[in-house]
Amino acid sequence: MSDSTNDTTPRSGRCAIVGRPNAGKSTLLNQLLGQKLVIATSKPGTTRSSVLAVFVSDAPPTQIAFVDTPGLHRPKSALGKVLREEAQLGLEGADVVLLVAEMPRPPKAGGDLPPVIGQEDQEILELAKTTGRPVVLALNKVDRLKNKALLLPILAELGERGDFEAIVPISALKGVNLDALVKELRERLPEGLLYADDFLTDRSERFFVAELIREAVMQKTAQEVPHGVAVLIDRYIDEGPRVIVEATIVVEKESHKGIVIGAGGQKIKDIGIAARAQIEAFLEKRAHLSLFVRVEKGWTSDPTKARTLSTEIEGS
């Protein structure tokens, strides 16, 4: 293995980011890229489609093609199965796997911390190990641990497991220790550069616009609604200084449609205002956004509809 401190050889490769829902994978990727590319909310299951995004550094020359995958968990619906398959596909072709786990919250009444690697983390780890690629652990949300003296024994215990080639404590939200994480990942990449200097992602602008609308819905609606929401882009016209977008918000219950629209249409108006602001910031141009709501009853339980609505963004 090379000494990352002195190694100036150009290196690039794919890094699959895996972990439980809400472990902070998308927040971490956005911090590494220095811009908001993937949506991140406090609600589990926000990420539905794998997104490839390239981190670039010149000192030393580095390209890390991160693949942000949906949170892995035991599927309870057709949609859950689709998302698990999407995450597993994200592992294919990876040169290194980054497992993001979170520091448990210290018990309020004192006592021992819960294990860092719980049962779901262990299942994800076993899946990652089937790739035969090195696994690096990013221990996220370490700022939860107020007594920093407790961190060293936790890291030592994780190291004794022998499952990880490197363990890096980080705070994705605060950007803490991300340089150290990049160094550990870079060490494990092949030599040479793969991507053009201006290549950022494999997804289209339409994809990210649909995701930003879905993020606004998730942030503005009740807990049960977001899990049954999809967004389809019906019309997308780029006029240069502005973009015209017509999109349909798909929900699985009539009651959810009422929640999304809100009394007197106020909720859908709030969603539109929030989404438009994010779209304009992302595209760096003005946006005209029109939103509609449609019911597809029980779509998350229908294998065909779940696959279509969770992975496609083009309306009919």
Question: Which structural category do the helix and sheet elements fall into?
Answer: alpha/beta
Q: Could you please say which CATH topology of the largest domain applies here?
A: Rossmann fold
Can you identify the CATH class of the largest domain? Alpha Beta
Outline the biggest β-sheet.
6 strands, mixed
Shape assignment: globular
Residue share in β-strands:
15-25%
CATH superfamily of the largest domain: P-loop containing nucleotide triphosphate hydrolases
What does this protein look like?
- This protein is an alpha/beta fold and 316 residues long.
- The chain folds into two domains: 11-187, P-loop containing nucleotide triphosphate hydrolases (Rossmann fold, 3-Layer(aba) Sandwich); 205-311, GMP Synthetase, Chain A, domain 3.
- It has helices spanning 25-33, 78-91, 119-129, 151-160, 178-187, 205-220, 254-261, 266-283, 303-311; strands spanning 11-19, 51-58, 61-68, 96-102, 135-140, 166-169, 230-238, 242-251, 286-295.
- It is globular and about 55 Å long.
Task: Draw up the topology in text.
Elements: E1 11-19, H1 25-33, E2 51-58, E3 61-68, H2 78-91, E4 96-102, H3 119-129, E5 135-140, H4 151-160, E6 166-169, H5 178-187, H6 205-220, E7 230-238, E8 242-251, H7 254-261, H8 266-283, E9 286-295, H9 303-311
Parallel strand pairs: 1-3, 1-4, 4-5, 5-6, 8-9
Antiparallel strand pairs: 2-3, 7-8
Helix pairs in contact: 2-9, 6-8
